[in-house]
Structure formats: structure tokens, C-alpha cells
């Protein structure tokens, strides 16, 4: 029995098995479109901003 999922980019049905090398995407094109969206920060995981070496720590962060 094979499971069918929707491509995150174009929403086309994709069989979730070894014959679908780009799963969960329907094609390499959809996979690269999604990768480009992450690289251009169109997609992001919510959270606080990352601290960089240029930003000084606050007093409460240094004592903890």
C-alpha cells in the first residue's frame, strides 16, 4: 500500500515510495523552488533573533 502526499510547492499528488526520488516534492523543480524560498528568507522558523559576536551581552546574560 502506497501513501499519497501533496507536494508542498504545487500541491500535486505524490506517491510516498522509492519510485518518487524528490518526495515530498513532485519534482526537482519544486524542490529547488522551496529551497530558494528558504534561502531568500521567504520561509522561516519562528523564534528570537540569533545573537552575533557583534552584539554585546546584557548584564543579566553575563551573570547567568
Compose a concise summary of this entry.
The protein has about 60 residues and is α+β, with helices and mostly antiparallel strands.
List the helices and strands and how they pair.
Elements: E1 3-6, E2 13-16, H1 28-39, H2 59-63
Antiparallel strand pairs: 1-2
Fold and architecture overview:
This protein has 64 residues and is α+β, with helices and mostly antiparallel strands. The protein has a domain at 1-41: Erythroid Transcription Factor GATA-1, Chain A, CATH 3.30.50. Helices cover 27% and strands 12% of the residues. The chain is built from 2 helices and 2 strands. Strands 1-2 form a two-stranded antiparallel ribbon. It is elongated and about 60 Å long. 5% of the residues are buried. The mean pLDDT is 85.
Strand order of the largest sheet: 1-2
CATH architecture of one domain: 2-Layer Sandwich
Q: Spans with pLDDT under 50 lasting ≥5 residues?
A: none
Which range does the strand content fall in? 5-15%
CATH topology of one domain: Erythroid Transcription Factor GATA-1, Chain A
Count up the helices. 2
SS-based class: alpha+beta
Rg over C-alpha atoms, rounded to the nearest angstrom:
19 Å
Global morphology: elongated
Q: Could you name the CATH class of one domain?
A: Alpha Beta
Overall pLDDT score: 85
The description of the largest β-sheet is: 2 strands, antiparallel
Amino acid at each position: 500500500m502506497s501513501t499519497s502526499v501533496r507536494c508542498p510547492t504545487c500541491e500535486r499528488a505524490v506517491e510516498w515510495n522509492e519510485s518518487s526520488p524528490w518526495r515530498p516534492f513532485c519534482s526537482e523543480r519544486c524542490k529547488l523552488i522551496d529551497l530558494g524560498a528558504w534561502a531568500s528568507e521567504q520561509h522561516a522558523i519562528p523564534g528570537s533573533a540569533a545573537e552575533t559576536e557583534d552584539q554585546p551581552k546584557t548584564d543579566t546574560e553575563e551573570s547567568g
